Amino acid sequence: MEYKVALCDDDEKIASKIMEAFNNELHAHNLEATIDYYSSGDVLIEAAKEKHYNLALLDIDMTPLNGFDTAQSICSISSDTRIVFVTSHEELVFDTFEYTPFYFIRKKYYETGVKKLVNKLTHTDLLTTSVHLEKNGSITSIDSVSIKYAVSQDHMLNIYTTSGNYQLRKKLSDLENELAGYNFIRVHKSCLINYMHVRRFDAVSSEVIMKDGFRIKVGRSYKDTFKKGFVQYRRTM
What we know:
Layout: E1 2-8, H1 12-28, E2 32-38, H2 41-48, E3 55-59, H3 67-77, E4 82-87, E5 103-106, H4 110-126, E6 130-135, E7 138-143, E8 147-153, E9 156-161, E10 164-168, H5 172-178, E11 184-188, E12 191-194, E13 198-202, E14 207-210, E15 215-217, H6 223-236
Parallel strand pairs: 1-2, 1-3, 3-4, 4-5
Antiparallel strand pairs: 6-7, 8-9, 8-12, 9-10, 11-12, 13-14, 14-15
């Protein structure tokens, strides 16, 4: 797999070091990446409208657009781009949680951070499978990691992915069985979600908010299982 990576930092010297370390670590895992460097968030945002990045490494302390604002815009363009914050200010780690980052790298220990990031990437991307969708005699194969959620309605199954949506006659329970063990969880009798694409859980409204803004109320009988699973997922990720 070749990763498409955006690195945005107004300090070109440290950015170059991080890129070198990242490439070296990927090569050690027999992986490849195309890394595009940007010195400002606004330039990256414009580029992201045309390019699809798997990963965006963002310095938090940038001007005029900081890393948080850049992350928010990137996620609105492509909800499946994984955000990694890079900073010298370790005290900001808690402020990053609102943006559901994939990882957090401290510049002081960037080499260790890059190693852990690549390990996390390989662990996450190994946990995927192909799902075959049949409709009108045609079969389409999609990676499970690209599936955000699936909703059953009026005897039809609507599958929402990062690259498009599919509607076909299929039981939600059948899809659930196919995806067992791949970070999917039933949150309602008619909805199956991918933990990877969850932004947060609103305990007040009992709603799951997905990274693309979709909200689904967690059924009473599914709540405890979902919450335990989500905590476990976050710990392992």
